[in-house]
Every structure is written in structure tokens, then in C-alpha cells.
């Protein structure tokens, strides 16, 4: 796992972000990463709550630690007495530790006059920052001081890089950076000295002296102090043209890379990494990526970094117009100014390279991929040669280092303003848009546009070019309809890059038939897939590897994805066989998840898997509704656990409406099951009339079909609707009829549901003992079958009955077990019901403040799920909240509800 605190706090596992919970839970993680020893509980509490922690602080801390263990693995957070310690697993990295290691290496390199190596190390260190350190946690007590410490270390890194640049004679780079660094930190003496020296070496003695005067005036006005003796000595040396200030001499005869037309935005880590590879023993690096990721621009930047370090500089060879691999030697010879009249062109090139120390950049090598052996021959003939290739496929030569060039990182949905502002994709779009004269704001609209364009540099630049005519929101709307908007008006842009479509079509033109078929089949996936998913639509490992090699598909951990800007071109080539296979694969996942609810499988893991494929499930439902309604009915019925348990019932209900509308009166068996699900979804959002309508229609259909199990379900569900209306007698009659049928059929899962509902009815009419008896029988069936979803519901009901009897400690025990299971499977709605009962308990004990917090937490979960307490229960809950408001007064009541919005704190109180 990658642990990142140099920016918003994140943990990534094989490229996927791990959910870390609320800010306080993330703050606990930072403290554990900050101090690799045992961190006392008292220190963690002080960080989270300051000098006046709440009474629930210890319990809340335990919940946060438990949450971290669930997210990161139990072994990574160790309990040591009353303290906790972070224990990394093999392969784990922590960005702040990597930053420290790189900075230590850079300091040693500067001391040993290995300035180029120092620049590489510092660049890699600075690239670890993704914005302000701890950007999302600076309000967490002591962490604000730690964030300032990290920013100080970043400033020291910039100063160290300036020293290395000055040693390399790159005062131009020092001047480029000094202005912005000094603007941010005007009182850093070392930055002022570096700026003065760089100005002097640039032949600007007067400006260097003016920079000194500016520093002196600012320090006198703001701090009331004079410059240090060291800075005054530097001023004197500038006045006297001290020879010691002269820049190091560069050797002559170098070849230089072409000057790029625009400034490189972002890519700090990539630039540092590739430069470091070529400075080391790696002689062949291939920048691999799909069209439009900026491989050429990165290669030019690397060439610019290295051209002053290599005795003979850089030779850049553009192969975009070359289609015959046999022409590569002639093109390279021309670039090296080797005569083409030689009978042995290979020998002439080898002789020209001889003892050269040179970087040869081969751009667009996919055009001549079969000429890779010629590159190997060049490297063998010239020991001082380094080759940097850009290609959509690797060269597949021994000693080659493939370096994937990914799209630029984009801000997460809902990201804070500072994360948006520091996003490299946003920075590129804004820089290019402003170059057109447009005043583009850095906001969520631009962030969403960057996400829509996958952070693909070419797409961002083409979209930004439209800013002169269209606002970002208008660009986004038009892109939803047509990618042809991404067109360049610049006359010096290569034809293949004049539109995004041309770039992608150019890539597809290089595919063989088998790979193009696999490309079309991959177009069925939305949000990527696993190897198994690819195989289910007819893409074998060989074809998948070919797509990855050609950068049309990216591997991210154990998933394979396609850029959204590329996927429409694949979807155009997707046939119905692939779409049917795709839907059937998702149906199998859904059925396995449903079976796990009966104890046949790992329900939390299967829910996680199905939720991971949610975008694919949506796509399959959309297609099957139009093309195969029976399959659509099965998909929505079997995926029911996902919609119910994971708080997605509102969306599930919308899909149900669409599927049922498409089904009409056909497929009665599957339609009956879908109607049953629709009734549940309606009831949970408080629409009792709608629920009863769906269930009565289902019962009528079941009676018409004559299927005993469907009939029993119909009685059960219509009885549930009667209970929601408060018609207890009719409800009990229907539920008992259903229970009898389910006993005869041996259908234990449905019998468990009916028994739980009978318990609810008994409790509602005041017979709490009978309600408990029914529910204990239901719980026994749930445990026998290993149905943890139903166990959570029964445990909640038992807590409710205990609360009704005034047995508050017993109620809390039942509810603590309930919420533990519900948290395990992500069953948020059951947690909300448990919170409602806990609010009742707290109110009965005279703790109106805690009752209000619990009620607010329950409301938050219901709202997030798009559900609410139905019928009589909802009325009783509303009445209780009104009583609490009257008891506390409006101001205190609202303040306590705001506190209760922190669900983690509410759960901590339950576990305590």
C-alpha cells in the first residue's frame, strides 16, 4: 500500500484509493505514520479533540482504530498497552519517508559535486507533494503544526534544488522559480541569495543589486531587522564582480533538442524519474502510452534536462511520417548528419556515434516497430549512447525500461478548492485556456471537464482551445454529444493531432484484425473489468495483453480500464454477442451475491465485487431493457442485495420502474419477483400506498400462476404493508398464512422474514414477549443459514423489544451486535434503525442531548440512502424529535443535531 500525507491524506492499494473514513479517523492514521513508535492514547485524543475531549473520546478512538484496521488490514495497526503503533507490511511505502530519503540523497550528491543526481532526487521528492501537506486535516489540533513542518521541509528542498541548478550552470531555471518561491515565502534568506547569484550570472548585475535592496526594505518594514552578514557579503561580491561568483563553464559541441512550443505543465515526477533512469545504467527507456498522453512533450523535457549534462547533447528524430521500418537507418543517419551515400549506412552511423556521449530521442516509434533490432545494433555499437523512445507499444529489447505515461491526475469528485487548484490536469487546461485570452476560473466545473476528458493532455489542450468561444460548462455539454469539438485551429499541429478522433483512429489503424476485435469487445465495459470479466466477453489473455501493449487498455492493479475518451471508439465496434455475454457475466455475480445471503459464500466480499462492477451493471441494465427484457428482469431481481444493503435503494427503484415498464405483461414469473422488490423499495422511502399496490399486484399474479412460494411471498408482503398502516389484525392474519406455507415448503429464509415481521406486529400491539419469541426463532434460522444480513435485522428488532420493556442495557447489547454486523457488510439502513432505538433509550433515561444526537445520526443515514421510516414508525419518530426540541429549546436542539451528524461518533458511543 502507498500511504500519502504530502497533500490530502490518502492510501492507495494497487492504484485504487482505500476509503479512510471521517477526518478524525484519517488524523489517527497520520499520527501513527508520523511517529513510528507506540503512540499513546492520550496523545491521539489530544490531537483529535484538544484539551477538552468529550466523554466518549476513548470509545470513539477505538472505533477509528477499528475502522483503520478494516480499511488497511488488522496487522497494520498494533495495540501496545494503551497505545497504538503502525506496522507496515512488506512493500508498503510512506511518502514522507520517501521524501526524507530522497532529500538526504540529494544533500549528499550536492556535497560530492554530483549536481545532476541531486536535481533528480529533489525533483522526485517534490513530486511526492500533491498540494498542501495534510490539506484536509489542518484543523485537527497538533496536526496543523506538523503540516507547517512538512511545508518547511518542502521549502528547503526547493532551495537545495536551486543550489544544484546553480552548480550545473542552470541559473535560468533558478530565476524561473525564484520569483514564485519568494512571493510565497519572502523572508527566506537563502532564496534571496540564490536569486541574486542567478541574476548576476545571467549578466544582470543591476537587477541582482535591486533584489538585495528589495529584501532589505521588506525585512526592515516587516521584521525590523537588517539582512544577515552573509547576504551583505554577497552584495559586496556582486558590486566587485568577484570571480568566485562566475557560473561553471559548459563544454561545447553539444546538439540541442528542439524547443517545445509551450511550457510543460505538471509531469514533475515523470520528468525526474525518466531523467534519473537515463543518468543511471539504463540506456534504453521507452515512454509508452496511448495517443494524446503527452509522450513527445515529456521526451522533449527530458532531453532539455540532459542536454547540458551529456558531452554531445541530444539528437531528436521524428518518425511520425515514416511508415517503412527499413527507412529507420536512413532517417537516423540524416539526423546525425551522416552522408547517405555510404554503402554501409549502419557502419557509418556506428562510426559517427563511436565514443559519443549522446541521447538519441526516437519519437513515434510505433510507426516502425519492426525496426527495433536496428536500435539494439546502435546501442551495441556505441557504449556512450542512450536512447529515449516514445511509442504506443514497447520495443521488446533486452535492457529496455518501459515507462508508462499515464494521463494527468484529475481532482476527485467533490474535491476541495486547493486540490482542484493543484491538479496537474486542471493546471494544464487553465494555462492553455488563458493563452487564448480567456479568463477561466479554477472551479468544480473545470475539474469535472478534466475528469470527463480523463486528464488526457491532448484532449485538455484541444478543449482549452475552444475557451475563446465557449465557457467550460458549455464545452462539457457539447462533449457529451460529440467529441469532434476537440479540434485544433493551430496550423503547426500534426494532422494526427488536429483532433482527438484523428489521434485515436491513427492508433487503431496500426492494429491487426484480432486485436481490433478484442478492442471492440472491450468497449462493452464501463469502469473497467477484471481478467475474468474480459474472458467472459471473449477477450483471452493474449488479446488483453496486446491491448495493454498498445496502450489502448491500462492495467491498474488487478483491473483493466479504457480511457473514456477512447471507449466510444471501442463501443462503436461492440457486437450484441459481447453485450449479451457481458450481461450474463454480471448476472452470475449477482446470483452469487444473492446466494451468499443464504450463507453460501462471503457476502461482504461479494457485495464489494458487485459494487465494484456497478458501472458495468448499469450499462448491462440499460442495454438489456432495450434488447432482452427477460435478462433485464433477472439482473434487477438477483442484484437486489446490492441495492438494499449498500444504500442504493433509490437508484435500484429507478431501474425497477424502467424494467417493469419494458416488461409490460410478459414474463410473469420474473415480473412477480421484480414487483416484490419494487414494493420493498417503495415502503422504505415511506410510500406505503405504492408499496401496497406493487405487492397486491404481485400476489394477484402469484395466485394466477399458482406457484406456492410466490403466493406465500405475496401474503407476507401485503401483510407487511398492512402493518405499515397500523392494521395489525390483518397483518398478523396474512403473515401467519405466509409462515404456514413457508414451513410446508421448507423455505427457511422467507420463513425467517415472516417470523421477524410477526415479531414486529406483536411488539406494536404491546405483546413484547411474543415479539421477542418470534424474533429469537427468526434469529436462530438466520444463524443456522449463516445469513448475516437477516441477523442484523433480527438483532435490531430484539434491541427494540428490550427497549420497550425498559431493559436498556440489554437493548444496547443487542444493538451493539447488530451495528457490528451491519458495519461489516455496509448495511447502513439497519444502522439507522438501531440509532432510532438508541435515541428512544437515551430519551427514556433522561439524556435528551444524547437522544438528539442519535436521532440526527439516524436522519443522516436515512437521507443518504433515500429512505425513511414508514407509516406509524415514522410518525412516532417525528413525535419524539418534536418532544426533544420542546424540551431542549430550538438553539440547543439544533446544536446537538449538528454534533449528531458525525456518524462515526455515534457508532463509537454504541461500541463503548
Amino acid at each position: 500500500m502507498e500511504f500519502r500525507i504530502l497533500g490530502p491524506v490518502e492510501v492507495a492499494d494497487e492504484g485504487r484509493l482505500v476509503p479512510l473514513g471521517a477526518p478524525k479517523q484519517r488524523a489517527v492514521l497520520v499520527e501513527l505514520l508520523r511517529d513510528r513508535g507506540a503512540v499513546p492514547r492520550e496523545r491521539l485524543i489530544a490531537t483529535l479533540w484538544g484539551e477538552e475531549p468529550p466523554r466518549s473520546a476513548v470509545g470513539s478512538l477505538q472505533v477509528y482504530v477499528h475502522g483503520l484496521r478494516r480499511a488497511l488490514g488488522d496487522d497494520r495497526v498494533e495495540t501496545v498497552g494503551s497505545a497504538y503503533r503502525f506496522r507496515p507490511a512488506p512493500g508498503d511505502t510512506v511518502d514522507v519517508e520517501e521524501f526524507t530519503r530522497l532529500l538526504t540523497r540529494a544533500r549528499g550528491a550536492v556535497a560530492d559535486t554530483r549536481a545532476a543526481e541531486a536535481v533528480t532526487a529533489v525533483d522526485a521528492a517534490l513530486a511526492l507533494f500533491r498540494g498542501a501537506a495534510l490539506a484536509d486535516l489542518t484543523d485537527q489540533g497538533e496536526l496543523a503544526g506538523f503540516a507547517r513542518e512538512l511545508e518547511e521541509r518542502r521549502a528547503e528542498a526547493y532551495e537545495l534544488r536551486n543550489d544544484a541548478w546553480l552548480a550545473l550552470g542552470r541559473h535560468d531555471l533558478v530565476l524561473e522559480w525564484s520569483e514564485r518561491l519568494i512571493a510565497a515565502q519572502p523572508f527566506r534568506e537563502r532564496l534571496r541569495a540564490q536569486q541574486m547569484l542567478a541574476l548576476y550570472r545571467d549578466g544582470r548585475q543591476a537587477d541582482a543589486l535591486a533584489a538585495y535592496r528589495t529584501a532589505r526594505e521588506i525585512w526592515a518594514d516587516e521584521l525590523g531587522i537588517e539582512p544577515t552578514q552573509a547576504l551583505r557579503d554577497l552584495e559586496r561580491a556582486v558590486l566587485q564582480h568577484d570571480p568566485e561568483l562566475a557560473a561553471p563553464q559548459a563544454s561545447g559541441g553539444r546538439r540541442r533538442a528542439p524547443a517545445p512550443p509551450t511550457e510543460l505543465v505538471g509531469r514533475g515526477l515523470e520528468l525526474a524519474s525518466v531523467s534519473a533512469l537515463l543518468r543511471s545504467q539504463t540506456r534504453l527507456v521507452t515512454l509508452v502510452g496511448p495517443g494524446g498522453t503527452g509522450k513527445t512533450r515529456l521526451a522533449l523535457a527530458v532531453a532539455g534536462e540532459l542536454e547540458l549534462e551529456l558531452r554531445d547533447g541530444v539528437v531528436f528524430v521524428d518518425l511520425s511520417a515514416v511508415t517503412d521500418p527499413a527507412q529507420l537507418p536512413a532517417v537516423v543517419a540524416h539526423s546525425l548528419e551522416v552522408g547517405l551515400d555510404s554503402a554501409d549506412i549502419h557502419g557509418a552511423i556506428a562510426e559517427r556515434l563511436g565514443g559519443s556521449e549522446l541521447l538519441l530521442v526516437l519519437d513515434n516509434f510505433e510507426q516502425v516497430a519492426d525496426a527495433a533490432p536496428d536500435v539494439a545494433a546502435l546501442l551495441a555499437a556505441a557504449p556512450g549512447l542512450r536512447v529515449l523512445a516514445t511509442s504506443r507499444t514497447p520495443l521488446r529489447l533486452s535492457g529496455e525500461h518501459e515507462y508508462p505515461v499515464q494521463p494527468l491526475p484529475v481532482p476527485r469528485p467533490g474535491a476541495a478548492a486547493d486540490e482542484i487548484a493543484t491538479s496537474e490536469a486542471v493546471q494544464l487546461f487553465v494555462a492553455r485556456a488563458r493563452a487564448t485570452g480567456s479568463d477561466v476560473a479554477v472551479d468544480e466545473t473545470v475539474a469535472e471537464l478534466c475528469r470527463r476528458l480523463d486528464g488526457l493532455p491532448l484532449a485538455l489542450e484541444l478543449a482549452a482551445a475552444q475557451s475563446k468561444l465557449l465557457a467550460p460548462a458549455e464545452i462539457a455539454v457539447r462533449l457529451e454529444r460529440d467529441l469532434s469539438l476537440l479540434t485544433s485551429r493551430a496550423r503547426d499541429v500534426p494532422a494526427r493531432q488536429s483532433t482527438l478522433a484523428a489521434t485515436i483512429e491513427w492508433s487503431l489503424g496500426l492494429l491487426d484484425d484480432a486485436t481490433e476485435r478484442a478492442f471492440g469487445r472491450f468497449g462493452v465495459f464501463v469502469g473497467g473489468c477484471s481478467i475474468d470479466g474480459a474472458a467472459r466477453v471473449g477477450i483471452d489473455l493474449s488479446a488483453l495483453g496486446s491491448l495493454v501493449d498498445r496502450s489502448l487498455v491500462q492495467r491498474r492493479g488487478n483491473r483493466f480500464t479504457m480511457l473514456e475518451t477512447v471507449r466510444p471508439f471501442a463501443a462503436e465496434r461492440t457486437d450484441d454477442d459481447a453485450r449479451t455475454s457481458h450481461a450474463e457475466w454480471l448476472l452470475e455475480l449477482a446470483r452469487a451475491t444473492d446466494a451468499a445471503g443464504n450463507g453460501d459464500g462471503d457476502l461482504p466480499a461479494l457485495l464489494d465485487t458487485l459494487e465494484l462492477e456497478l458501472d458495468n451493471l448499469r450499462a448491462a441494465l440499460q442495454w438489456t431493457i432495450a434488447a432482452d427484457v427477460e435478462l433485464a428482469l433477472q439482473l434487477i431481481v438477483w442484484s437486489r442485495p446490492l441495492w438494499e444493503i449498500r444504500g442504493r435503494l433509490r437508484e435500484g427503484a429507478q431501474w425497477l420502474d424502467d424494467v417493469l415498464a419494458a416488461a409490460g405483461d410478459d414474463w410473469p414469473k420474473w415480473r412477480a419477483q421484480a414487483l416484490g422488490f419494487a414494493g420493498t423499495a417503495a415502503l422504505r422511502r415511506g410510500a406505503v400506498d405504492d408499496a401496497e399496490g406493487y405487492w397486491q399486484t404481485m400476489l394477484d399474479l402469484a395466485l394466477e400462476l399458482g406457484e406456492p412460494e410466490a403466493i406465500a411471498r405475496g401474503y407476507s408482503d401485503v401483510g407487511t404493508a398492512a402493518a405499515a398502516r397500523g392494521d395489525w389484525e390483518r397483518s398478523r392474519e396474512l403473515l401467519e398464512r405466509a409462515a404456514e406455507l413457508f414451513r410446508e415448503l421448507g423455505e427457511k429464509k422467507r420463513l425467517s422474514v415472516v417470523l421477524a415481521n410477526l415479531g414486529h406486529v406483536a411488539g406494536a400491539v404491546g405483546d413484547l414477549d411474543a415479539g421477542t419469541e418470534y424474533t429469537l426463532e427468526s434469529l436462530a434460522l438466520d444463524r443456522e443459514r449463516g445469513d448475516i444480513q437477516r441477523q442484523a435485522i433480527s438483532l435490531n428488532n430484539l434491541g427494540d423489544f428490550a427497549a420497550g420493556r425498559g431493559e436498556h442495557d440489554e437493548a444496547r447489547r443487542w444493538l451493539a451486535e447488530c451495528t457490528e454486523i451491519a458495519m461489516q457488510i455496509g448495511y447502513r439502513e439497519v444502522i439507522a434503525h438501531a440509532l432510532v432505538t438508541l435515541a428512544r433509550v437515551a430519551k427514556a433515561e433522561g439524556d435528551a442531548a444524547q437522544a438528539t444526537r442519535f436521532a440526527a445520526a439516524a436522519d443522516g443515514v436515512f437521507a443518504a440512502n433515500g429512505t425513511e421510516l414508514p407509516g406509524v414508525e415514522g410518525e412516532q419518530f417525528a413525535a419524539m424529535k418534536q418532544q426533544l426540541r420542546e424540551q431542549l429549546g430550538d438553539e440547543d436542539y439544533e446544536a446537538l443535531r449538528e454534533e449528531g451528524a458525525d456518524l462515526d461518533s455515534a457508532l463509537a458511543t454504541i461500541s463503548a
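The chain has a mean pLDDT of 84. The two ends are 30 Å apart (CA to CA).
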